[in-house]
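[stage:ingest] chain + small molecule (adenosine-5'-diphosphate)
[stage:ingest] validated
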Amino acid sequence: MVDKLALGVVVMTRSGEIRYRNRRANSMAGTHTGLLVDNAVKEALLRALHGEDSRRTLEFYGPPQVAVVVSAEPLPEGAAVATIEDVSDRRRVDAVRTDFVANISHELKTPVGALAVLAEALADENDVGVIHRVAERMVGEAHRVARTIDDLLELSRIELGEEPVRDPVSVHDLVAGAIERARGLAEAKGTNVAVLDVPDEVRIVGDRRQLVSALGNLVENAVKYSEPGASVQVRVLVEGAFAELMVADQGIGIPAADHGRIFERFYRVDKARSRDTGGTGLGLSIVRHVAHNHGGEVLVSSQEGEGSTFVLRIPLHIPPGDGAEAPVRVEAQRPTEQNP
Ligand code: ADP
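[stage:predict] done
[stage:export] tokens:
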């Protein structure tokens, strides 16, 4: 039973001999980390033989980063027992959570702070022209808060990983939904969103709402990061068991160094520009999550000053009895993008 524990257990006899080590305690044997943990365990056990409880956290900066808690206490008959607990995953989750909360606070604090300053300015203002301008800016900042909250809610819904919907979804319908979503923005910028090569009969497996949101985000970005009056192209190809939904623009492009980071929450290549375009920095994280929820992936190829192409690869729907032994399985697979 002790061998089945996720906790390492080591027992030392009264004479200072190691009497027992469970399987987990042996699992690090032979590594540099294992050696350092072993030394800490022995030290703790010897202290416990003298009646002292001890607890120590060992941090190894890796990679991979490892954090281990070693504790020891005396046993009634004069022996001592030590436990070794690997807390690396818990630490990582805590760090991500702390980071996320800090990011959200910052993202919301900025427009809320601006609202407060603008409201103060308004309170002392008599000039109608200025009042109008300030009020307009306040509306803009309020919309920004609302967009960030909407995107956060959407992201948490998608991340929550409720039982995913697995309906057959026509790519034609999907493209239409995505374009509809980006229509207001495209019209405001005079951008033409051209639909090229979207086969009528191709269907993919998944949650229509999530898929429209992902593709819609890609179309919105293509419009946002292109000059006014530019053109954006959407096409769908079939590649093996996947549909490739492509959104291409000839806009500002993304420097190669940022390709691996743009899918992170709140990451923006150019903060000021993203703010001007009303970006929340969450769009591509939503796209990546949707792709993974559907057993697919999202890829980018882009050159600064030349434009970008994003490809959302989603498994095709293969009707039962249509040459396939089983329906396409929709399972999360390891991301192939550069970011974790
Ligand atoms: P945002 O809300 O800022 O657009 P996203 O997560 O959608 O956030 O995108 C992250 C960043 O990636 C953007 O801030 C922008 O710098 C860059 N980006 C995304 N799509 C494009 C694109 N089509 N062309 C150029 N840059 C893009």
